[in-house]
Specification:
Chain lengths: 225, 225
DNA sequence: TTCAAGATGTTGGAATTCCAACATCGCTGT
DNA sequence: ACAGCGATGTTGGAATTCCAACATCTTGAA
């Protein structure tokens, strides 16, 4: 554990816990390090979850099986991200599976331990704050993508995504964090069709783009029409 | 406030707080009742959020405007649900707007107040537990829909949704909580096209359905082929 | 500078979905 | 039983998207 104290203390979750309090806190949380080799299954769907995992190193594939046994990718979880946080808090059974995509390390800990009524140290409160922030952050992130996918056409998905990017950068001109392939995957559409739609949008005067740089155009401000 | 104490105490959030502690707790949270008439805008995008809202009565439309000023519906929030919980916790600015769809009542309160390091009563811990559970529950709900929308075809969206319904009911035969119109809206596809796709799936031996009742069929167990 | 590989744009036919219009079904009230 | 209305299924043409194949552009390495 001590080998990873620094890494743990760098995570968003534990960053604000005073360094001297960290080790006793981890103790209180009944925490435990686990190591996974590439390809190793870390969590299987159907198990009741008690602990939350904090990924200290590595990457995990989060996926599910449908009724007919087909596998579907849900998310890719990287270092610093949490794992099973929702099920641990709500005391529910996961429907997801998690597999290490490379050599990885997870810190498992019992977040409910910190909510015990009789234990109320400063560090506990700090951790709870950080943990709640993580839950809220994830919620907002899911809402964001959901509102992009909740459209009937590629065009509308693109406009939804780009609108929010403009808002996020507080400018009508910005760089997006995806290349075309990643953007298509994010929007769940086919890459070349999306490319074509971007060209159509540019021709229609909605935007200008080159690589991952975009400039959105208001109808009245369009350079040409 | 006293008129609504019972309603507040019935909510998932405050249910577990001892009845005698409720009023002082609400006081501590700097809480406040607000009344909205049908059509009244409750929250406008762009404001930094401090308080969380608990809907005591009524319904709110949660929506956003895109870069070109077009309005898009995001969610419908009903009695007992929270409002701005994510932005309040993470201290971020909302990009959403909220409008009362009927005569409504919201209890606004400062959830961060409860995380103050010097205040650690039993009721606080209980509230924090409930609040975190709500965040986690919402997260799981968003993940669920996201994985349904994250497909390229109506067929796959349907199979994804139905798979999880089967899992939820722990049976290959179940009733879904939607009629066709609602299901189409949930999956962001066109109703009649979805209906046609359901017929095709039935013909292909994936399922049997009548109204909101479904039975999923494994290839090897299909009654015919 | 040149080359190779990856990223992006374009194209055409197949497949899917949208959309409107209409048929049928099923439930409810009379 | 019957009328009426909303829910559901079906259909055909228009529009969109998928998909594969290929052209062009960019970037990094040699």
């Amino acid at each position: 554990m001590t080998d990873y104290l620094k890494t743990i203390h760098k995570s968003k979750l534990f960053r604000k816990v005073p360094e001297t309090d960290l080790e006793p806190l981890l103790e209180q949380l009944d925490s435990q390090l686990k190591f996974y080799r590439a390809g190793q299954v870390a969590v299987t769907a159907g198990r009741r979850v008690r602990r939350v995992g904090l990924i200290l190193e590595g990457t995990f594939n989060m996926y599910e099986y449908d009724f007919w046994g087909r596998e579907h990718h849900i998310d890719t979880l990287k270092s610093g991200m949490l794992l099973l946080e929702n099920n641990a808090v709500s005391g529910t059974v996961t429907i997801h599976n998690y597999t290490a995509m490379e050599s990885s390390v997870i810190l498992w800990f019992n977040i409910r331990e910190i909510l015990r009524l009789d234990e109320t140290h400063t560090s506990n409160t700090i951790l709870i704050q950080s943990f709640m922030k993580e839950l809220a952050r994830k919620n907002l992130q899911l809402y964001t993508r959901l509102s992009d996918l909740d459209r009937m056409s590629t065009k509308e998905k693109l406009l939804s995504f780009l609108s929010k990017e403009a808002l996020r950068h507080n400018s009508d001109e910005f760089d997006i964090p995806f290349d075309r392939k990643q953007l298509a995957e994010y929007l769940s559409v086919e890459r070349s069709a999306m490319s074509a739609e971007l060209s159509a949008l540019a021709k229609a005067g909605y935007l200008e783009t080159r690589r991952n740089h975009f400039k959105l155009l208001k109808p009245s401000l369009r350079t040409e029409d």
